[in-house]
Amino acid sequence: MYNKAKMGFKEGEGLGKYSQGRKDIVEASNQKGRRGLGLTLRGFDQELNVDWRDEPEPSACEQVSWFPECTTEIPDTQEVSDWMVVGKRKMIIEDETEFCGEELLHSVLQCKSVFDVLDGEEMRRARTRANPYEMIRGVFFLNRAAMKMANMDFVFDRMFTNPRDSCGKLLVKDREAELLYFADVCAGPGGFSEYVLWRKKWHAKGFGMTLKGPNDFKLEDFYSASSELFEPYYGGMRDIPSNISAFRNFVLDNTDRKGVHFLMADGGFSVEGQENLQEILSKQLLLCQFLMALSIVRTGGHFICKTFDLFTPFSVGLIYLLYCCFERVCLFKPITSRPANSERYVVCKGLKVGIDDVRDYLFSVNIKLNQLRNTDSDVNLVVPLEVIKGDHEFTDYMIRSNESHCSLQIKALAKIHAFVQDATLSEPRQAEIRKECLRLWGIPDQARVAPSSSDPKSKFFELIQGTEIDIFSYKPTLLTSKTLEKIRPVLDYRCMVSGSEQKFLIGLGKSQIYTWDGRQSDRWVKLDLKTELPRDTLLSVEIVHELKGEGKAQRKISAIHILDVLVLNGSDVREQHFNQRIQLAEKFVKAVSKPSRPDMNPIRVKEVYRLEEMEKIFVRLEMKIIKGSSGIPKLSYTGRDDRHFVPTGLYIVRTVNEPWTMGFSKSYKKKFFYNKKTKSSTFDLPADSIWGDGIRVHDSQKPQDPDKLSKEDVLSFIQTQRLSALGHPTPAECVVVP
């Protein structure tokens, strides 16, 4: 060491000829980040005096606390007519103490203010280290929002992806005809929807409404689900009443006027620099999302919506209206929502009957908010305070929820503050908690990877799983007077009107669709139509030129007509009965159809008739003048929606496998299955009666050839066979022969 005395050092004086050197020791560097040397920010030095170390131990298990059931009647038009209160626009939150203690409110606002002066990147790094659930992230979905929905879907007993009625019975099943309908509003880029479609696949259909631009749905980034099952509907600004009405009509038109099973709303926008006023600034967004729920959710359906602080009587009044309109309501903060933010979700279960007056009232409030924009006035109340506070159970829950949320938020903010000050602090259980949560929620721990591309031929062999390819080159047998005798009994057969050549169609995702005529020497050809199908889909189809109208106003469009389905979005359905496959095809078409896109070529399922009811087909045949036919009328078949096309024949399909056949019970007045080998009968579909590949026979409409059959020949044969089908013993009459 140097001898400071020899250098002229004297206690209490600095070095140098005139003692001008530094007297105090050099302090350790307190430099934070890359800001200028010597710059000190209040946020780093300010003490919050909050003990964050007594926070609960992180856990994957969560508890739900519901509001008590509402026992008051749903407000009607007369009651709500004088509820709306317009007053001076209010842009402060510090005095909103009706539903939260003053001390807690001021504490949480003070904690938030500390972060206003912190560098964003430093705060984010500290937040990442401080949050025990941070590593859950988005897994293989496009963002963290998807995992929030996965989290809440599990906590609420899958009430969104597997909704049940009040008796616990599933409302939609994969093998049944009804789709799970849902809507996703103000929720771009679409993480909520990606999760639902990943969970339900093609058994769900989603409708979305958001704004075009940076907050649009990013359907091309749905790596884990088929975005073809989701239909965005675009409006203008978020609060324009006409957009809400238009979206309501659109959803009702496409759900048989019933509405969706559930609505998800995750709206929000940047309030940078005004974080403490987020609740006030987003009040109309919150109202519009609640209004949308009352507009498009079906009776018994559910609603989940992101909220922020709920201190103002305006926000609490909106929650009160939901409390009146749904069977059960709760405020819930999932562990996937960062603990330091004010984000919570209002979860509503079971929409009641008779909410129309409340919906109309909220619609009028929205109009009033639009009228008062850019003025000093605002809607301050939607429900009078005396009405809210008159329901003591509701008020107590609201205060408890707000104060509990504030307490947790204060601790989380203090924890981040401590982690900013000390870069060595970290949460040790992040990886363990992540693994436990994914296991509990049923989410595979996989990386996010874009779907691999494939050529149609390779994908075809992958989907058919070793099935002999010769089956696909099978061609229909021409129906003549000789082959007609093989169609016995007629109850075993179904028929469809043909409009062109049969092809196989494979979907590789989006517009990557190819067709193949079944000949091994021919290649898969890119379909030159504007349509979209989910990947891993294999269908038997016709490309039919449909016509609407006659004369000069006649319009022609090419449509895909599905004859049969083999694989639907990765689900092999070939082992299902023909009738079941057609039902699944109808369901699939509903899921992928996009009525808001008239520029796309339609996809339809062939109308299937029982062979014994073939006369229904002939009723729908008529002579029409077709464009390009030189004014000569041509035979046309008119299908659904007044569309018609030139028929080229009939497909007759056997749907029952030997030795089973079908008969009609005169005593029970219904059809049954009869085993010709064992002489046994049953009303239930036997598994071994399902006809695998099907026999198809084709009847030309041209009667010039004497070997070909006329309408009268076929109908006469069917009538004879129908009568003979009554001869088999029914299940109650037969004896099972061993």
TrEMBL record:
S-adenosyl-L-methionine-dependent methyltransferase that mediates RNA cap1 2'-O-ribose methylation to the 5'-cap structure of RNAs. Methylates the ribose of the first nucleotide of a m(7)GpppG-capped mRNA to produce m(7)GpppNmp (cap1). S-adenosyl-L-methionine-dependent methyltransferase that mediates mRNA cap1 2'-O-ribose methylation to the 5'-cap structure of mRNAs. Methylates the ribose of the first nucleotide of a m(7)GpppG-capped mRNA and small nuclear RNA (snRNA) to produce m(7)GpppRm (cap1). Displays a preference for cap0 transcripts. Cap1 modification is linked to higher levels of translation. May be involved in the interferon response pathway. GO terms for cellular component: cytoplasm; nucleus. Residues 140-352 form the RrmJ-type SAM-dependent 2'-O-MTase domain. SMART domains: WW. This is Cap-specific mRNA (nucleoside-2'-O-)-methyltransferase 1. It catalyses: a 5'-end (N(7)-methyl 5'-triphosphoguanosine)-ribonucleoside in mRNA + S-adenosyl-L-methionine = a 5'-end (N(7)-methyl 5'-triphosphoguanosine)-(2'-O-methyl-ribonucleoside) in mRNA + S-adenosyl-L-homocysteine + H(+). It is found in: Nucleus. InterPro entries: G_patch_dom (IPR000467), mRNA_Cap_2O-Ribose_MeTrfase (IPR050851), RNA_MeTrfase_FtsJ_dom (IPR002877), RrmJ-type_MeTrfase (IPR025816), SAM-dependent_MTases_sf (IPR029063), WW_dom (IPR001202). Residues 6-42 form the G-patch domain.
